[in-house]
Write a structure and sequence with these properties.
CATH architecture: 3-Layer(aba) Sandwich
Largest sheet: 10 strands, mixed
Mean pLDDT: 97
CATH class: Alpha Beta
Strand content: 15-25%
Distance between the termini: 34 Å
Number of strands: 10
Shape: globular
Number of helices: 10
């Protein structure tokens, strides 16, 4: 097992260069599926984070009740209404019919209420069948989804509680035990696991990257939604799920450190979004 601490030099290798003559769509097209009557902000944070990562286009699918508020936040989002307030089989079928033919990656789950687990499984399987790389978070992290994911360029981004729900085991407070548990589950299920915490642990079961954050201000709600958007945004350009997840964790942390330096313990996740371009600029390459 290879274990490495994330550094700027390492992450630079994970973020592809942009071609000087590229056209709209060449640098990634992302789908975000999330939101509910209560949690309207989560998919917005993910969507803007994906755009800020350098993705060309983001399609944001939210329940009809959230459409106006989502559109009002940013004219940059292409909003596709879910026909039901929750994720149902009918809503998934309508969504699949409305998506563009070219779609590189998707992130699913933030703020989303799933009425029936089969609707989630249908969405995940349909996207994977189209060779869409996936980042799964929050309500999408259920054990039933695991058999669909093996060796399919999928990242799961649980915190400790979601990890237990997904895998049936709680991460220990011992750093070494946490690392070993993440590695074991990643290898067993053929996925990349990004366990969020004071130290992010990112592993595909063969290689593990560690990122010690020390950013207490990032306990504020929504920072995980920003991370999910960054994962999907970077996956849209780099097919290697481990590299994209590691880069996203690192960028999210750099933005958090920059905001904490400016605002102390008073950040919001919107502040993270504002900071992403500045911390990503050193990683920009044009060929």
């Amino acid at each position: 097992m290879v274990r490495k601490t994330l550094t700027t030099a390492l992450v630079k290798k994970f973020i592809p260069a942009r071609k000087a003559k590229s056209r709209k769509g060449d640098n990634g097209i992302v789908l975000v599926v999330g939101g509910s009557y209560i949690y309207h902000g989560a998919p917005i944070l993910s969507s803007v984070a994906a755009l800020r990562s350098g993705t060309d286009l983001v399609y944001t699918s939210v329940p009809k009740i959230n459409v106006s508020s989502t559109r009002s936040v940013s004219p940059n989002l292409i909003v596709i209404p879910l026909v039901d307030q929750k994720l149902t089989r009918g809503a998934v079928n309508k969504l699949l019919g409305a998506l563009p033919r070219k779609l590189d990656s998707a992130t699913i789950g933030m703020g989303l209420v799933i009425q029936e687990k089969n609707s989630l499984l249908h969405l995940v399987k349909s996207l994977l069948d189209r060779d869409v790389r996936l980042s799964l978070d929050a309500s999408a992290l259920i054990p039933d989804v695991l058999p669909l994911l093996a060796n399919k360029n999928v990242v799961v981004t649980p915190h400790a509680g979601e990890f237990k729900r997904l895998f049936g085991e709680s991460p220990s407070n011992s750093k070494n035990d946490r690392i070993k548990l993440v590695e074991d589950k990643a290898k067993k299920f053929g996925i990349t696991v990004l366990l969020k915490g004071a130290t992010d642990v990112i592993s595909n079961g063969g290689t593990t990257y560690l990122y010690e954050k020390k950013i207490p201000a990032m306990t504020v709600g929504g920072t995980g939604d920003v991370l999910s958007g960054l994962v999907a945004g970077l996956l849209s350009k780099n097919r290697k799920s481990l590299e994209s997840a590691a880069a996203a964790a690192f960028i999210n942390g750099l933005a958090g450190k920059a905001v904490q330096k400016k605002l102390g313990l008073h950040m919001t996740s919107m502040d993270l979004l504002t900071e992403i371009p500045s911390v990503m600029k050193p990683f920009d390459k044009i060929v």
